[in-house]
Every structure is written in structure tokens, then in C-alpha cells.
Specification:
The chain has 406 residues and is an alpha/beta fold. The chain has 3 domains: 3-69; 77-272, Rossmann fold (3-Layer(aba) Sandwich); 278-403. It is built from 17 helices and 18 strands. It has a 9-stranded mixed β-sheet, sandwiched between helices.
Amino acid sequence: MLTEYFSQIALADIQNFLIAHEHDDEKVLVLKQKEVRGVPSSIIASQLSARRKAKSKLPTWYKTKGIIYPPTTNLEQSSSEATAIYKTAILESCVSTKRIAVDLTGGFGVDSFFLSTLFDSIHYVEPNAELLGMTKHNHQQLGASNITHHNLSAEKFLDQSILAFDQVYIDPSRRDERSRKVYKLADCFPDITTLQPIIFKKSKYVLIKASPLLDIQQGLRELQHVKNVFVVSVGNECKEVLFLAERNYEGEPLIDAIDLWEDGRVRFSFSFTFPDERMAHAALGEPDVYLYEPNTSILKSGAFKGVAEKFGLTKLDVNTHLYTSSTVVSDFPGKIFLIECLQPDAKQLKALLPEGQVNVVARNYPLTPEEIKKKLRLRDGGQKFLIGFSSSKKKHLALCSRVTGI
């Protein structure tokens, strides 16, 4: 249904309406109006909702007039602008020749667009004709003239193409035929585990985007010749796990835990190999003056001992991924807390938290945050943190304040 209104949505009067009514409640719009400038109000409502989501996720699309947005699922599954920019930075440093690349799972075309800023020519592949038409239009609005669009599946494109590529990019769908979420790469569509040998006949490199929930070791078992693994967070929220595979590579993969600013610049990075982590030494001890919680990328990557060794911190327990020190390590990649009171009882907390508000966190602790709040009659809010955790000797509850950190 959306396809027949492409041309009208892109017109100036509809685009001006979307801008003017950006903050309107789209549900009210649908109830009040049957259509807007000849376009069903349900479609206008969908465009309004998507445009609001794009404001932070895809600011270039948001700022560009004439953009047509896809259904919610396609927009949610697309890469953010920050992670797409970072992918081009990865490939700029890893791939020597940048003539021709292919995005085998084009979708809304965010990654294809940013790849087009790095490579001379991009091939966008997408079996959904409506999504392809929308993305082709948007690429034109964005000024990307070096993208060729193919209405084919990844398998058919690879079978039919006679081209050799400098880079292949693929983001398999993490939903099965019943729209249920899947996490193993072999269960995704298309199945990169069967496509990889075919891809390596046409390209030296393939960059694979996987779910942030995918176990990295599981991904390495399923894929061949992985040279780098990038665990990418934006604002301390893990967004993607990327595997860069190089034809015939047999070495130990380098793991990069990355946190990005909203504009795609690297906020910090932490690199290691799994043998590095196994050999790292992390002294265990009791809580001191400061507590440290690593960024989500480091936690996801599994650098539990390595981060302690690098920053000279004491780990609280083998299974507690919090760290401590007597003096502050201000460049630590994560949250830093000053311990104000250790093991406070209910009476102390009442005096220290007169409003009864605190942010409760539990790490390897027998009670959940909700159970801690209920037991101590506390509620969410305020500037302080109550952190429950286990050291190698005992259970602790610490009232803390946040220290500026990375």
C-alpha cells in the first residue's frame, strides 16, 4: 500500500506537513482526518512516528527533505547512523582497495549509504521490492549516485554476479519465518555460515553484523577466518557485534570493545585477544574507596581480567565484574563510584537518604534491585546509588555517589 503513495509523500506539501506536525499525536490525527493531501492519514501517522525515531538514530535522514520511511520493523532493524559511520572507519583502515563493495542485505539502506562514501561503487541487494524502491528514492535524495540497486536475494545475487568485490557486507535477519527472534548465525536469514565459502570466491573480506546478544565464542565457532571482532556500543548500550573475516586468515582474532559518541566518533576502545585474557592477572580483594563498572562493550567482550590488569584495579570476585581501588583511575572506560558508606543499615539509610530515593544496582548479589528496595523501603530516584555485590569473602551493600568517568 505504501508504494502507491511514494511520489505524494515525497512532495513538498506533505514533507512540510510532516515537519510542521512533528510533535503531534499521530493517533489523534488518524481519528480526526481520513487523509492528508490525498494520502491516507494512517500512512502519514506512520511517517510522523518514524521521523521522530530517525531524529536521534538517523539525523542525516531526519534533516533531509523528501525522505520516505519504512514500516517500524524495518526502521528498528536498520543500523544507526553512528554504527554505520563506524563501520566505514573499520573498512577504511582494514581494506586496501576501495573500488567496489556489496551490501547483501540492503534493508533501509543506511549501511549502503555510508559505504558509498568510502567505495567508488556500491551494490545494494534487497528482495523486498517495496523496501528497495523506498531506499532507492532515499539514496537519490541523499545524493548517493554510486549505488546500484538489485531486487534479488543475497543467494541469487551471488549466483548471478560475475563481479569481484573489495568488500562484502551482510546483516542477516534475526527473525525466522514465524517472526520469532533467533540468535545463532546459522538460524538467521540468509545463512552466512553456508554463504561464506561462496562469498570468499568473490571477495577477500566480509563484514558480518550480528545480534548484540550473540555469544562471541559461538559466532567464532560458526564463522571461518575471522580476523577481528568489534563489540560496538553507543552511549553504553551494546548495539552490534561485528565479525570481520579475511579469506584464508588463520590467526587469533583481535577483539575490540568500542563505545561511540552519537556522531560515530570513538569514545574509547579496549583491544585484546582471548589468549591475552586467559593470561591476564586480576588480584581479588575487598572493596576500597572507589568502585568501577566497565562499559557494556567490555562486559560483552569478556575482558574481565584484562581490564583490571590494564588499569591496575582489584577485582572483587571471579564472578563479580566490578573493580575497586584506593585512588581514582579517571580514564577507566565505564562508570566510577565513590563509596560513601559500606554496609549501611536501614537507620543509616534513612538519615543519608531523607527522601527515600536511590538508584539501586545488583551485581552477583542474592537480592534483585526490586527486592532490595522493598526490604529497605526505598524507591527509585535521586543522585545516589545503592550497589549490592559479592566479593570473594562476603556480600556487600554500598551507598555510592557517581564520579565523572568515561
